[in-house]
Amino acid sequence: MQITFLGTSSGVPTRSRNVSSIALRLPQRAEIWLFDCGEGTQHQFLRSDLKISQISRIFVTHLHGDHIFGLMGLLASCGLAGNPKRIDIYGPSGLSEYLQGCVRYSQTHFSYPVKVHTIQPGIIFEDEEYQVVCGPLKHRVPAFGYRIIEKDKPGRFDVETAQKLGIPPGPIYAQLKQGQVVTLPDGRVIRGTELCGQAQVGRKFVYCTDTVFCDGAVELAENADVLIHEATFAHQDAEMAFQRLHSTSTMAAQVALAAGVKQLIMTHFSPRYAPGNSIILEDLLTEARAIFPNTDMAYDFLTHTIPRRPSP
Fold first, then answer.
1. Residue 33 parent element (H or E)
2. Around Cβ 282, how many Cβ atoms within 10 Å?
3. What is the Cα gyration radius of the chain?
4. Ramachandran category for residue 268: left, alpha or beta (phi over 0 → left; psi -120 to 50 → alpha)
5. Which residues contact 199 (CB under 8 A, 6 or more apart)?
6. What pLDDT does residue 72 have?
7. How deeply is 15 buried, as exposed, middle or buried, from its count of CB atoms within 10 A (0-12, 13-18, 19+)?
8. What's the rounded Cα separation, in Å, for the pair 242 and 253?
9. What sign for the dihedral angle of Cα 254, 257, 258, 264?
10. Which of 87, 133, 208, 209 satisfies CB 3.0 to 4.6 Å to 230 for a cystine?
11. Pairing between strand 122-126 and 295-297?
């Protein structure tokens, strides 16, 4: 699991930061899952080493323009970039109507299937490898955060030892690979866990923006390996954050601390903290680290690989 930040500014782009978008790369299945799609996201793809043709799922947090204005252009370009088999889009109520209007008035025709899923809190996608859960955040419009869970994988099955024990290959191997206890025809009881290496614990990635501090974000982020959380404002501007229902750097750190996450990466910064102003972005990082030391600050094209952790 590898995260690339394609836009880390809030509201409007700046010379160095585009508006919100994050790509989650899943190399083992040659897929990219996109989270939000602000204006100019397809241009950010061109400036990265990501392949637009690998996008298979897009998750939208809410319908504010800095999170969706790039969506229609990206979808139109995807068909020209390699004809994806299908793109599934997940987001709040109204997203489907927005895209339908864009298609109708621009007379755009997709060369591949596009399916829009209107989300509700809970599990919104699951297969044999991943589960995606969404939960409500607290913003001026309906907004959701996303939790991506990689399922645990059993350790490597020791075929050589199984053969030495005289265990016949076939369905029994499949049972043992899953850690099951199997009784052989000769009466021997074999525990699959004794023939498998250490299990690979699945990773957990959480994306929360836009929101003021809320219990929903804490619940969604519980024990995550990486929490990406908005930090639009500095602590000094907390009153503005409450008025606009955005987070400060200290709110993001408090969510990370309360949820027991392993790492916090802040994003979605207000352009007001540009170099030369009385408060700059480095001050936001200092504020957050005073509460949650393992905090980093995102910038456009930052790539972060979520490491695997040993089984407890």
1. strand 31-35
2. 11
3. 22
4. left
5. 152, 153, 154, 155, 311
6. 95
7. exposed
8. 16
9. positive
10. 209
11. unpaired
- Compute the residue count for the chain: 312
Strand, coil or helix: 276: coil
Report the distance separating Cα 131 and Cα 205, nearest Å: 11
Listing DSSP states for 220-253 in one string gives HHTT-SEEEEE--B-GGGHHHHHHHT--BHHHHH
Kindly report the CA angle at 294 between 289 and 299, in degrees rounded to 5? 85
pLDDT tens-place string over residues 57-67? 999 999 999 99
Would the pTM count as exceeding 0.85?
yes
DSSP code per residue over 194-207 = GGB---BPPPEEEE
Q: Which residues of the chain have pLDDT under 50?
A: none
Q: What is the pLDDT of residue 170?
A: 79
Q: How far does CA 176 lie from the centroid of its chain?
A: 33
- Which pLDDT belongs to residue 83? 62
Is the CA virtual torsion 205, 207, 212, 215 positive or negative? Answer: negative
Bridge partner residues of 222 (DSSP)? none
Annotated active-site residue 66? The verdict is yes
Q: Over pLDDT 70: what percentage of the chain? A: 98
φ and ψ at residue 242, rounded to 5 degrees = -65, -40
**Of 36, 66, 237, 300, catalytic:** 66
| HSE-up (13 A, CA, CB side) for residue 44 | 29
> Alpha-carbon dihedral of residues 239, 213, 125, 267, nearest 10 degrees?
60
- Which residue in the block uniquely carries the two structure tokens 């408090």? 254
